[in-house]
Design a protein that fits this description.
- The chain is α/β, with parallel strands linked by helices.
- It has 19 helices and eleven strands.
- The strands form three sheets. Strands 3-2-1-4-5-6 form a six-stranded parallel beta sheet. The chain has a three-stranded antiparallel beta sheet with strand order 7-8-9, covered by helices on one side.
- Strand 7 and strand 8 form a beta hairpin.
Length: 403
């Protein structure tokens, strides 16, 4: 059965995580995605590679796509792209703005060839301002957006610690890009108009923390005092660890929404409603007034019990809670297995693998994986042949390093 985007064709100029992830989401939904890579392969193919031009990092972000190799600085490559564009519905790109224009694959150029083109563009910091042409990856955006400092993590030397091993701004932007492209297609369906849709890693990172970024004069009175203090101490040369410590205080009232250690691991209690919080008080034998000594007693008691025994008491009381698991354990977890979220793939170069399905489950138009990630340049000859290039012309382009 065809996916909801069956018949949609997307030309993807991408590297690393955000845009490749968006393209993979689209292939899972039934779109045909042709990924353009340099002849040597994009950098993520070489990230801890375990076979020639193949890595787990690349394979988990590019399944189901086709692959065309082009040396985009060559005029012959520009001509190939311009001949391809009329047959595609959308472009997905995460090149720097100056690079896209230099290669002749910017929106003004391509929309002249195909006026109803949906062009979805990702930059690190946005297309305006002094940082517009800067390169940037998730780590840099975690830092500048405040995501890193918001977690309050520091290393042993008191330097900033990264928020997460997972590239939060990248994967968040990938979801936003896929949403943008589908929205652009819907707009075109209603109006016949193409358009350019802009996104940035920084804008996504800010949207992931709306309560912090939002300015509210009444609610933010204490926060603004802390911000003024932090700025003053920064101007005086205070170390990062001190600036980080100028935060909203943590107090025992957090008892219902935090991590607790147990004898064999750790659990998270995540109660939100008044009834749930009251239930936590009852299960943990806490009164209305909670002191730090009460929390210390509770922590000591829980460290003598197994995670399962504590969780069962919480579950019986209807309290949201869970064990703290390692990610690699989850691929074989019964809850994952029972929902069929893992599936088997066979890659022509590296063999059998298990991957995580798209999280969407459609009743009428299933989001089924289209296949493994592509071999480097596996579709180049076929794509060029369909454009009318002869075998000798293709051989010449390959000999010249264009493809």
């Amino acid at each position: 059965m065809a996916g909801p985007l069956s018949g949609i064709r997307v030309l993807e100029f991408s590297q690393v995580i955000a845009a490749p992830f968006a393209g993979q989401v689209l292939t899972d939904l039934g779109a045909e995605v042709l990924k353009v890579e340099p002849p040597e392969g994009e950098s993520w193919r070489l990230q801890a590679s375990f076979a020639e031009k193949e890595s787990k990092a690349y394979q988990c972000l590019n399944r189901g796509k086709r692959c065309l190799t082009l040396h985009m600085s060559r005029p012959e490559s520009r001509e190939i792209v311009h001949r391809l564009i009329p047959d595609f519905d959308a472009v997905l790109i995460n090149y720097r703005p100056d690079a896209a224009a230099r290669f002749g694959i910017d929106y003004p150029t391509l929309s002249k060839i195909k006026p109803d083109l949906v062009y979805v563009d990702l930059t690190a910091f946005g297309r305006h301002g002094q940082w517009a042409d800067r390169p940037g990856y998730d780590g840099a955006v975690q830092a500048v957006s405040g995501l890193m400092a918001a977690e309050g993590k520091t290393r042993e030397d008191e330097s900033p610690g990264t928020i997460s091993f997972t590239a939060i701004a990248d994967y968040g932007s990938g979801c936003v890009l896929a949403d943008a492209l589908i929205s652009g297609l819907y707009h075109r369906e209603r109006t016949g108009e193409g358009q350019m849709i802009e996104c940035s890693l920084l804008a996504t990172a800010l949207n992931l923390q709306p309560e912090v970024v939002m300015e509210h004069p009444v609610a933010d009175s204490e926060r603004n005092l802390r911000r003024a203090t932090r700025r003053k101490r920064a101007s005086e040369g205070a170390p990062y660890s001190e600036l980080l410590s100028i935060r909203a205080p943590h107090d025992p009232s957090d008892f219902h929404h935090r991590v607790y250690l147990t004898a064999d691991g750790a659990i998270v209690v995540a109660a939100e409603t008044a009834d749930e919080i009251a239930s936590v008080r009852k299960v943990f034998a806490l009164g209305e007034s909670i002191s730090q000594q009460d929390i210390g007693r509770l922590e000591a008691e829980l460290e003598l019990r197994t995670a399962d025994s504590v969780l069962q008491c919480l579950f019986d009381a209807g309290i949201p809670a869970s064990p703290v698991n390692l990610t690699e354990e989850m691929s074989i977890h019964p809850q994952v297995r029972d929902n069929g979220w893992m599936f088997d793939l066979n890659h022509p170069a590296t063999g059998a693998q298990r991957a995580i399905r798209n999280p969407l489950c459609f009743s009428a138009s299933p989001a089924e994986p289209a296949g493994p990630s592509p071999m480097l340049g596996q579709d180049t000859t076929l794509v060029l042949s369909r454009l009318g290039y002869s075998a000798s012309e293709i051989d010449a382009l390959r000999a010249q390093g264009v493809i």
